[in-house]
Amino acid sequence: xxxxxxxxxxxxxxxxxxxxxxxxxxxxxxxxxxxxxxxxxxxxxxxxxxxxxxxxxxxxxxxxxxxxxxxxxxxxxxxxxxxxxxxxxxxxxxxxxxxxxxxxxxxxxxxxxxxxxxxxxxxxxxxxxxxxxxxxxxxxxxxxxxxxxxxxxxxxxxxxxxxxxxxxxxxxxxxxxxxxxxxxxxxxxxxxxxxxxxxxxxxxxxxxxxxxxxxxxxxxxxxxxxx
Length: 227
Prior knowledge:
- The chain is 46% helix and 6% strand.
- The protein is mainly alpha-helical.
- The protein has one domain.
- It starts with a helix and ends with a helix.
């Protein structure tokens, strides 16, 4: 599948999720940036969407800004969602991730507002809460929405099965260079050499038995995405 078609599919996936989350009773609002930390993960496909959605000068400014803070502590995943799903299905041992809360704000914030809000990756879109997480100390997400979020993470990774995943900062830094972008478009980007992890195809959906019937309408929408 061409990059253009995968980006169009990604837009459709985002729209399905945005429609779902719009119907939720959430406390999230503008300038509520408590969950906007440096620990967000994303795919290279999502980085392409961001880079394509800003001007050349905007890309240069973003690259300069990211390089100025590239040494900040941040979460770096060891496994993608689909890889974890396969390991769980095989009852294999899951390596422990470093879940230390680094407490750093997202590099894309400006006065508690996201500078790329319309282009933000799914890792940001799925941070929703029924109560003010600044007051609560954590995001209050119901179990069904958590299952929905996992499915969307799996689908987005599947769309980018020939690409990479990693911390938002790391992925954007990699995809900000023309050479890496060309290598990615040609399916030749070396994930490990660039400090990222390899994406996996979706083979096992992580949906608890109690959520399978309720989530089916969403799965039907995802199955009918036009490519």
